[in-house]
Amino acid sequence: MVKLDEHPLMKKLADPGIQLTPKGRILGNYILNNPRKAVFMTTKELAGICKVSEATVVRFVTQVGFESYGRFQQTLRDLIDTDMPLTERMDLTFSGDPDTNRFQYEIYKDIENLKHLYESTDTGVMKKIIDCLAESAGIYIIGSRMSYPLAHYMGWAMTKIRQNVQTLNGSDSTSFDYLAIAAPESAVIIFTVSRYPNELLRLGKHVRRTGHKLIVISDNALAPLNNFAHLNLAAPSRFIPLFSSPISMMCLINYLLTELAGRYGDNMNKHQQKLEQTYRENDILFNLDNFLK
Predict the structure, then answer these.
(1) Residues 134 and 257 in one domain
(2) Residues 259, 206 share a domain
(3) CA distance 216 to 186
(4) DSSP alpha helices (H): ranges in 34-138?
(5) What is the spatial distance between Cα 162 and Cα 21, in angstroms, rounded to a whole number?
(6) Which of its termini does the chain have fewer beta carbons within 10 Å around, N or C?
(7) DSSP 8-class letter at 85
């Protein structure tokens, strides 16, 4: 887990040797002492509470290594989200005017998060992940607690594309058994969302020891499991969610599934024909002809 005072940004702000103007030092001290307040402030609000100009705020974030205030704020948001307890999230979610249209606001947040995903995702990493999934003999997809539904969805959908796919519950210790006896150099996808269960960290370390390829899909560029990944994708939120922000991660999943399906072509058609035959023979899925009989 990344602690606030151990993060490079906070260390930089606390470093007396960093070249900051006196007003820049005022800004740095305020952020050090009030990171959970500063993360939600506009440049105007931060300038006002520190009694400096907005131009000073803009110069300050450049001095500490960020190309824009938005990038600085996102880094601070990601850092705070890694360990913010549920009680504080509740206070953030239900603060302000009780008459606010929460339905519209939740949709607005998801739209903003999808825009951020579109602007920030590394398409080169996505291509490498798709290559890995297409070439691996076996694929294991793991989630735990809040991230298990994401793993289950991707795992179930991927069984419609290729063979040798298995979904594991990271809360079940038998996951270690399955990974220990998996085919050599299998691909392992672990989904992890705030506040990052330690059981997934242990599984990530286990995957690396067993020599499999570890792919991590998270909601935060600072998610602890990213440190063990061969490849990782993050779908960060511009907001600190009450529980999690699954929409952007679902968008990543659907893209990966679609691209992977395109790789298999005729082989996938044969695979799906077998599945459809099984569905018909065992009356597994709804069929209008049978329903009308």
Answers:
(1) yes
(2) yes
(3) 14
(4) 35-38, 43-50, 54-63, 69-81, 86-93, 102-120, 123-135
(5) 59
(6) C
(7) -
DSSP tag of 243: S
Closest CA to 82 of 190, 220, 232: 220
Print pLDDT tens along the chain (293 aa).
445 566 677 888 888 778 888 999 999 999 988 888 888 888 999 999 999 999 999 999 998 888 889 888 888 887 777 767 766 666 666 655 555 687 888 898 899 999 989 998 999 999 999 999 999 999 999 999 999 999 999 999 999 999 999 999 999 999 999 999 999 989 999 999 988 899 999 999 999 999 999 999 998 888 889 999 999 999 988 877 767 778 999 999 999 999 999 998 888 888 899 998 998 889 888 876 776 66
**Token pair of 253, please?**
């999943």
Q: What is the CATH number of the domain that holds 162?
A: 3.40.50.10490
The C-alpha angle 84, 88, 89, rounded to 5 degrees, equals: 80
Q: Tell me how far apart the terminal alpha carbons of the chain are, to the nearest angstrom.
A: 59
Count of beta carbons in the 10 Å neighbourhood of residue 225: 22
67-73: long-range pairs with CB below 8 Å, 24+: 69/43, 73/39
Domain-terminating residue out of 81, 108, 143: 81
Same-domain pairing of 133 and 255? yes
In this structure, the answer to whether residues 44 and 157 fall within a common structural domain is no
Q: What is the pTM of this model?
A: 0.79
Same domain, yes or no: 32 and 145: no
Is residue 177 located within the same domain as residue 228?
A: yes
DSSP 194-219: TT--HHHHHHHHHHHHHTPEEEEEES
Is 255 in the same domain as 178? yes
Residue 157 is assigned to a structural domain of this protein: yes
Distance CA 141, CA 169 (A): 9
Residue located via tokens 């509470």? 49
